[in-house]
C-alpha cells in the first residue's frame, strides 16, 4: 500500500534508515525504496522525514501518480542520463553562436 514505511526489524538499528512503499503497483508487486538519512541538522522526527519523503514522490511534474523514488532523485537520474548522453556522443551543436550569458544557464529536463 502506498505510504507504508518499514523502519524496524529489517533495517540497521544503528542508522537512521527506512524502506518506503512510495507508490502502488500497476501490475504485479511493488518494491520499496530504501532511504538512509546521512545527516539531520534540523533534528526532525522520523515520522516527519518519512512523511516528507512520501510526499516528494508526488512532485514529479510529468506524472499523475506517485513515483517509487522522490522527485529530487528522479530529476538527478534524468540529469545524469542527459549528461552521459551529451558526453558520450560527438558534439552536434556549435556553442560559439550563443551569447556568453547563456553559456552558464540551466537547461530543463
TrEMBL record:
Chain ranges of the Piwi domain:
1-88
The cross-references to Pfam families, in alphabetical order and at most eight, read:
Piwi
Lineage, top-rank taxon, reads Eukaryota
What molecular function does GO assign, one term?
A: nucleic acid binding
Against InterPro entries, the record matches this protein to:
Piwi, RNaseH-like_sf, RNaseH_sf
The record ties this protein, via PANTHER family, to: EUKARYOTIC TRANSLATION INITIATION FACTOR 2C
Q: What name does the UniProt record give this protein?
A: Piwi domain-containing protein
Q: Which organism is it from?
A: Phytophthora fragariae
Amino acid at each position: 500500500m502506498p505510504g507504508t514505511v518499514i523502519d524496524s526489524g529489517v533495517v540497521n538499528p544503528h542508522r537512521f534508515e527506512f524502506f518506503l512503499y512510495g507508490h502502488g503497483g500497476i501490475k504485479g508487486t511493488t518494491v520499496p525504496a530504501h532511504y538512509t538519512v546521512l545527516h539531520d541538522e534540523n533534528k526532525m522526527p522520523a515520522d516527519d522525514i518519512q512523511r516528507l519523503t512520501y510526499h516528494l514522490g508526488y512532485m514529479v511534474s510529468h506524472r499523475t501518480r506517485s513515483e517509487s523514488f522522490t522527485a529530487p532523485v528522479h530529476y538527478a537520474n534524468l540529469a545524469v542520463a542527459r549528461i552521459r548522453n551529451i558526453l558520450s556522443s560527438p558534439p552536434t551543436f556549435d556553442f560559439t553562436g550563443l551569447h556568453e550569458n547563456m553559456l552558464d544557464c540551466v537547461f530543463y529536463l
